[in-house]
Design a protein that fits this description.
Strand content: over 45%
Number of strands: 8
Structural class: mainly beta
Order of helices and strands: EEEEEEEHE
Number of helices: 1
Largest sheet: 6 strands, antiparallel
Radius of gyration: 20 Å
Helix content: under 10%
Length: 127
């Protein structure tokens, strides 16, 4: 980015809180592995947005407000590896699309709404 007096840089920090909803369909089940597909979406609210603008002789901090929620849809294919009846590991690569929320604040979700994702971790089954 350039200004009249030369070059400047903007660092932006956004913090979201979201509610996801996802449906899974298990299409392959064996003793120690499950394969599934999932589809869903989420709604997120930006709780905090800050910008730090670095200019040649000045640093400016600004707080921004993003009042509109961020909606997204996603789908993935996953695998669960059962380590015990209650514990296991999962790996789920997929894609996500973020809808434009018409916020005046530029975000990576506006610039690149279609993204790849990789969910992985440890799960614990409560029964």
């Amino acid at each position: 980015l350039f200004s009249e007096s030369g070059q400047f840089d903007v660092k932006q920090e956004l913090h979201y809180l979201g509610i996801p909803l996802k449906l899974n369909y298990k299409f392959y089940n064996r003793k120690h592995t499950d394969f599934y597909i999932s589809a869903g979406g989420s709604i997120e609210k930006c709780l905090s947005a800050r910008q730090k603008i670095y200019m040649p002789e000045d640093i400016t901090n600004r707080r921004k407000t993003i009042s509109r929620p961020q909606f997204s849809v996603s789908c993935s294919v996953g695998m669960k590896l059962k380590l015990s009846p209650k514990w296991g590991l999962y790996l789920s690569p997929g894609v996500v699309y973020y809808f434009d929320n018409n916020s005046p604040v530029e975000t990576v979700r506006k610039q690149h709404p279609f993204n790849f994702k990789l969910d992985m971790g440890l799960y614990f089954r409560i029964k």
